[in-house]
Amino acid sequence: MRANAATYSHPREEVVNFRAGDGKQLNLIRVLGTRAPVKGPVMLVHGAGVRANIFRAPIPRTLVDTLVADGYDVWLENWRASIDVAPNEWTLDQAAVHDHPKAIETIVQKTGWNEVKAIVHCQGASSFVLSAVAGLLPQVKLIISNAVSLHPVMSLATHLKLRQLVPLLSRWTPYLNPQWGLGAKGLIPRALTLAARATHHECDNTVCKMVSIIYGYGLGHSTLWSHENLNPQTHEWVKQEFAQVPLSFFRQMLESLRAGYTVPVEGYRELPQDVALRRPQTDARFVFMAGRGNRCFLAESQRRSYEAMSRYRRGYHSLHVVPGYGHLDVFMGRNAPWDIFPLIQAELNRPTQERA
């Protein structure tokens, strides 16, 4: 039974450093099982203001454990949004052009496999899918994207909050940081921490409250997960897994929300402004996944991306809207190993001929 499930220890791991296209030092964490992998490499990509470790919450069996046990060569990317990288004012453009292509190139070189699968989350997903449709990831043949891809949709309240606060906060600070909940210094950190404590009474974890106020809008409930889905250890663990996120990201998100699709903002020739509207320059199959209760990006985000991609190849891609889950609890939830991971495994293991 679930309550008596064995606790899985983390397998061995190897840190592989690589340089992004613009020279930024990043890394991949290769997770090694007791037996040699037989199914090829799969790369996991985290979202904004977290790190590769976000896929390894203290639950009985993580997605990483599941994939290693299933015979995959598992790689976790720390791209420039990682809190393990020095704070920087990144954009989705930079990650799409500089980070993900070099990460995939490194995996191909290290493993000898010329095909890679990817499981990507939130802004790791937005930037990765942007890179793929621009033709920058030819080795990637399957992309499982969670929460949001090319068509961000937020609640009206969250959209209005971003429109009002981002220009104001940009005058005072280049970053927002949930760690302020552990010790705020300065006017803006203290003000936001007080606001989080005043409007969120669903738990006593101030970092959790800060995550909700930074990434969404709502009173009395969390933005990125349902508390009912987290065990106490995970709820405590998140205190160390969220840190700085730049306002440069939120400014780009505002432009994308206005347009209705992800908008490149830096003028890279590899990313025309309408790249999200063009025929995708990839033969990868996309699996769009969303928690029905996501309060950060509405599940409609993934539905729109699925419909947009399906215009070019009907019956090729997949959409899964999962009841009872939100944004990150699809990976961190206490019951995710039974509710979510089998779905991910089934898509990863789907025979090639079914995708023709």
Automatic annotation (TrEMBL):
Q: Which organism is it from?
A: Cystobacter fuscus (strain ATCC 25194 / DSM 2262 / NBRC 100088 / M29)
| UniProt similarity note | Belongs to the GMC oxidoreductase family.
InterPro entries attached to this UniProt entry: AB_hydrolase_fold, Cholesterol_Oxidase
Q: Which cofactor does it need?
A: FAD
Q: Spell out the SUPFAM superfamilies in the cross-references.
A: alpha/beta-Hydrolases
Source domain of life is: Bacteria
Q: What is this protein called?
A: Cholesterol oxidase
Enumerate the UniProt keywords alphabetically: FAD, Flavoprotein, Oxidoreductase
Q: Which GO terms describe its molecular function?
A: oxidoreductase activity
